[in-house]
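Table S2 (text version). Query chain:
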Amino acid sequence: MARIAFYAPLKSPDHPVPSGDRKMARQLVDCLQRAGHQVEVLSELRAYLPRDDDHAAWERLKQHSATERQRIAALWEAAAPDLVFCYHPYYKSPDLVGLPLAQAHGLPYMTCEASLSARRGTGLWAGTQALAQEGVAAAVLNLCLSGRDAAGLSALVPGARLAHLPPFIDPAPFAAPPCPERGHIVTVAMMRPGDKLDSYRHLAAALSRLPASCDWRLSVAGDGPAAEDVRALFADLPPERLSWLGALPPPQVAALLARGVLCLWPGVGEAYGLAYLEAQAAGLPVIAFRTAGVPEVVSEDDGGTLVAPGDDAALADAVAALIADPADAARRGAAARQRVRARHSMDAATARLSALVDQALGGGGR
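Corresponding structure-token output:
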């Protein structure tokens, strides 16, 4: 058993606001503990720079980070951990705590879902990207949840030590037998500007292209700062076909998915999308764009349907076909569910992560 200091600079596992980042951070901690390791959250400090010209914010962050490092170093005088594990460092959220401490104490450093962008060459982000790049180069192992991230790390840090960890969820909450309601399309997604809003735009466009003979209805679980903008995108669609459910607690999300025929979410810019895994774990086939990290979690060989990015007509055709053939939708959903259980489950991730941590520690503890 190793003692692991876990740090997520973008969003701590204990952060009060739910998100995919927080969920994955919590799942990683859970897997490490299931594997028998003692996991300690290194710091609650949030290192996030949404702008590349906010020098005052950058100075404050550096000061707070220095204070945190001093606090933690004092705690480590009695006994330092065996490994520092950093989740999701990137140019907007560099690791200013775990990496310097690991270097100062001669500890192995490991990242998961680190990402680098060749476009970040100016402003503050040029410097924070360099810090993220330094961490990738120094890490004994960088765990990549997508092929896109692995390619980005390899391109900017030749020789970086990489390993693949498939994205994962706990499928147990979604184990209820599917009870699909005819024509019921389900979407579970936050409502915020950027890629999420673009995905909602394509979602509305696809629904507007469904033939008049298609008996469909959409349930949307999600909320956020762009909620009004999202609803405006659907203003020309029949309101009686739309159910806006707001943010739902996990048990209600699972119950909603169990009543769906299919999950429709275009997935613009998705790193991979835990919501896709949840939908498939509940027995729903997924229809999405073949873009970004979506193919990491949605397989056309196992029930998924992926179409060219931006092709709203193809999304509509795929939806209409499955609604017209619920037996095929059920078969696809069953195949997708089996794939999640075999490849993307907590059990599979625990076994994989245990082996990777052991590799990072050289076959054992320090």
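Notes on Table S2: The radius of gyration is 21 Å. The first strand starts at residue 3 and ends at 7.
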